[in-house]
Amino acid sequence: MDYNQLSFQLAAVTRHAGQFIRQEAATFNRSHIEMKGVHDLVSYVDKETEKLLVAGLREVLPEAGFITEEGTEGADRAEEFNWIIDPLDGTTNFVHGLPVYCVSVGLVRGQELVAGVVYEVVRDECFRAAKGAGAFCNEVPIHVSDVPDLNSSLIATGFPYTDFGLMDDYLQVLGSFMRRSHGVRRVGSAAADLAYVAAGRFEGFFEFNLNSYDVAAGILLVREAGGRVTEFLQDGDPLFGREVVASNGLVHQEMQDTIREVWK
């Protein structure tokens, strides 16, 4: 299978879904949201976008199944290929009119990522990657930065919206990064954070309590752009875990060491 060609088709489907989000943003009312929890919002835009993606991706690869955030009816997993979908990563940003939110779709064959797209809706930036074919933003090749140390780095992070039991430790880690880097940014979309690492805008990103649909496409983008992605303390694949460290590779050990000082 030509994963690079498939990623072009994925990009077209993802852009189409992004156009729907852009149209709905113009008239969106906060009364249209549902509360999964005080920090966990969902809107009809999330649900309808996911339906659009499922329908479009079925045409691209009919035998593939789905791992989705919103649980679209009939979007079940398959044995070999599965699309991993976050229809609107950054829902809270969207609801509040903060213009950073993405459509994120990755494709796995078994446990291996083979294609991924992150489409940043407001900026109209389409980040695309395929296994062995590199990473692109609006079809311009991208690469992680060449910043060699944490002291010269800009780092991104995010905060959990459930399970706050580890927040004290996390805030200690955050403080260490703030003291040792040029700064820490909290964009509000893990997909955007990872795409920005791939594009060299951030040197690194770390976050815990994530799901596969938050990070699938972004992990592949970083790796295909020359970067590194692992768990917090180990070098395992974080795709189906709960924590992610992504970097340009050069500052990765420093990032893990900084986390390791607190995280057990």
Automatic annotation (TrEMBL):
Instruction: Indicate which residues the UniProt annotation says bind Mg(2+).
Output: 69, 86, 88-89, 214
Pfam families for this protein: Inositol_P
What's the cofactor? Answer: Mg(2+)
Identify the InterPro entries for this entry.
IMPase (IPR033942), Inositol_monoP_metal-BS (IPR020583), Inositol_monophosphatase-like (IPR000760), Inositol_monophosphatase_CS (IPR020550), Inositol_monophosphatase_SuhB (IPR022337)
Q: Which reaction does it catalyse?
A: a myo-inositol phosphate + H2O = myo-inositol + phosphate
Which keywords does this chain's UniProt record carry?
Answer: Hydrolase, Magnesium, Metal-binding
GO BP annotations of the record are: inositol metabolic process; phosphatidylinositol phosphate biosynthetic process; signal transduction
Q: Its Enzyme Commission number?
A: 3.1.3.25
Q: Write out the GO MF terms.
A: inositol monophosphate 1-phosphatase activity; metal ion binding
> What CDD domains does the annotation carry?
IMPase (cd01639)
> What family is this protein classified in?
Belongs to the inositol monophosphatase superfamily.
Stated name of the protein: Inositol-1-monophosphatase
Instruction: Tell me the lineage of the source organism.
Output: Bacteria, Pseudomonadati, Bacteroidota, Cytophagia, Cytophagales
